[in-house]
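re the bet — no i am not wrong, look at it urself. input seq straight from the record:
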Amino acid sequence: MSIKYVLRKIHEYRVRSLSIPFIDREFEIENILNITKRSKEYMHILTITGPWGCGKTELARALTSTLNTQDYTTIYINLTEEEIEEIISTIKPEIKEVIKNLLTSLESITKIPFHLYTLLKNIHEKLSLRDKIVIIFIDEITKSLDKYRVSIRDFISAMSIKIYDICSSLELKALYPIILTSDQSAIHYFIKERGKDMLTYLIWNLPKNAHEELLKKLNCPLSHDLIWELCGGNPRELIELFRKNWNIEKYINEKIETCREITIYAKDLNVINYLEEIINNVDNLKPYIPKTQIPEYILTTKLIEDNVIIIIDDRLDKLSQIPKNEPWIGKERAFQIPIHYWILKTIIEKKKINIKHKEVLEQINQHLKK
């Protein structure tokens, strides 16, 4: 099976929420396939993080729909959902039946990550997995770990042993659990465990050409350059604007509320100058250190846990190409979407919290004229 075949097939997948063909992600798909084609001795747990709404889930669903061939069996499990059709994605009814039956015995979807051997053994009995590369996407694993008070370290340690045991027992060619998470406070711990048993990857928002393509399919009536400065290619943000009938004023005003809260928080901590340093250079953000009482670290924690800032440093291998020469993207940290950057920059420069959406647009338009 060639990568070209997968790329052709994946663009036949239709995004359910919009009923349009899947767009781009060629770079990411090629990377994932190359990782999974390594020999059995180099199997790893893969953790993929990225901006909230960047399309991790849709990519996993699209690959699950496409990558069930003679070589692969692929399953997607979403631990944040309750309806069975949203929890499981697979094109093979035998697999869906096995998972439904297992859920009945386990009583909770959150137990699935701790029963991968049982899951795959039951699938193997229905549908032989011998000599297959098996990929299991597990979306938002931290929900399970938090519920059962299992540390990320213990989970990774136990899972890494299970991978080889399962492969040997079921005669799989390879097994790759792929953990998807937007939880930036959790990724700090995943990064600490990277190495022999686990690899950590960063996926980014859509690149500019795919952003353009999506806007055309959505019949966006506004300047595509302006939308880029608001959303930075984030699919969820683009869809949010689309569902607001491209009402820029409403969209910006909602984001202003988030940034106003951050600004008040910075003032209360008496570190408003530190917030200004971050706006001028996002890499000035203090390293994320949970539960540290230093005011700058407390503000850092809020920016990260509120999905405003994201870690993008070299501890994360790049599954995507990161845009260059954008003021909201540094080498080690970045704003998840540019609108937060532009609003905070406007607040700092105007020296007032109650800004208007027109003032934010002025900032953006000045940047676009350069």
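see?? The chain has two domains: 3-202, 208-311+323-369. told u. also Residues 87 and 323 are 32 Å apart (CA to CA). so pay up
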